[in-house]
Amino acid sequence: MFRNLSTEIKHFNQQPHDFRILVLTNMIYALVLPVIDIFVAAYVMRNSNDPTKVVIYQLTIYTGIPLTFLLNGFLLNRFSIKVLYSAGMLLSGVSMIVMMSLKTLDLTGIGIAGIIMGMSFGFYWANRDYLALSITSDQNRNYYYGLETFFYTIIAVIVPVCIGWFIEAGGDINVNNAYRIITGLVFVITIFASVVCFRGRFRNPDEKTFLYLRFHPYWRKLLMLASLKGLAQGYLVTAPAMLIMLLLGKEGALGTAQSVGAIIAAVLMYIIGRAAKPEHRITIFACGLICFALAAVLNGVLYNATGVVIFMLFLLLAKPLLDMAYFPIQFSVIDILSKKEKRNEYAYILNHEVGLYAGRFLGAGTFIFLAYYFSTEVALRYAIIIIAVLQLLSIAVGKRIVKEGKALIKEISEKTTAVV
User: What is the number of structural domains in the chain?
Assistant: First the structure.
């Protein structure tokens, strides 16, 4: 066992310096992500008892993200990518401070906190995606995302349990004080992650132009895949918190449910990421989508405490499998088209966010429509099933992307050879 661990550490240390720094930065910031993804939504739910407000909060976040991707493109011409990346991490703490300072959770206050959190995500993901694209190759991206997913999943075991029971230990009177203490810890962690980030030798994009309106037809297929992915994101960020608060009722139970099976999932993700080759990505992607569909159906059929725990268990497998396959597929398309069209890679990262936003808006809008015209229960039971079934279309789209990608690589290679 120790020999195997030593081998894995040695393999990690053999990676480029910036590869290791980016992984370490994201690993530290990962301590914050369960708080942002789950417990902020739980805070809104607890203090408003209105699932619609939770979804509106999420929509303001999703609105802030693409706008900040655009702003980030202009700022990259003036500021170091490390500064912008760190700003994204720090803003997540600022957003939580704004949320906790609100005396009443009205739509204006929720909207302001949501926009700030959206800016946080925008700066963080825009620069994180560009850095991950620039410091990895198609051959080591499975390992990169397998390693990140391993740490994220392990952290998803520890953080939700600790925070959930810490909140519950305070009782109903001191629960908001507990949230404020957690917010303070989040801010400290984001500062530490920023310090580590500045140890990297990260470079800004060389090409300054990043705004384009027309793209190769191949890119439209990835935008379709992004929209399908966004469908689930628009619902999944808040749905687990709402389901657990309504059907289990406690943050401690929320944290425990998040942790079920996560250790096994983490080890599995690392092994898959270490062993998988580029040709395995569609298989991994399909497994993630099937797990997600099973989670949705079982939640809709059972719709009770047991159903929620099963739902969370399947999500612990589905989400990392999807991310491990999706991001390398996305980056492979960007690698191909940036060479073919001779454009800044950030142009594709920015435009990709438009596809995600369209899907997120539709996913969250589906929930609001069902909740408003029918009931919250109908929305929580059936919106996710509709989304999961639609997402299964991603398998066919993904296969088409991989097939066309091979043809384009061959075409670019032949042109390069002819020029030489």
Answer: 1
